[in-house]
Amino acid sequence: MSGEHSGNPPRPGEKIPPRVVRFDLADLRRYAEASGDDNPIHLDAAVARRAGLEAPPVHGMLLMSAFEPALDAWRADWMLRQLSAKFLRPVFAGESVEISGRIVETSDGSGALLRLLAHNDRREIVVIAEATLAKP
Question: What is the dihedral of CA 66, 101, 75, 97, to 10 degrees?
Fold first, then answer.
């Protein structure tokens, strides 16, 4: 937990520091094995190209898994209670994604609503997400 946050609840307008994540093809293979989602479009570049993609896309739920560590790095003293997202464009294996966001509203010091964004290497928004944090 960062010392500047000790005991202070998040404030509306407060920004979540950007965090960069990257998933390579080995990450996609591990996720496919663990989740059972072994759709070849995620694992085989030739299959992805035949589908009109430049490379295998990252599984949506694997990409979603990057949000919680980003929030935890910012405020380990608060817990993620809910996370929803809209995927706007694919993220491809080997591509970096920057996660950032801000507090939209808080409720009596015990909860916070966040809007989150994920941008790809080209600075395009690839995911718009909303999260609810709560004091444990």
Answer: 30
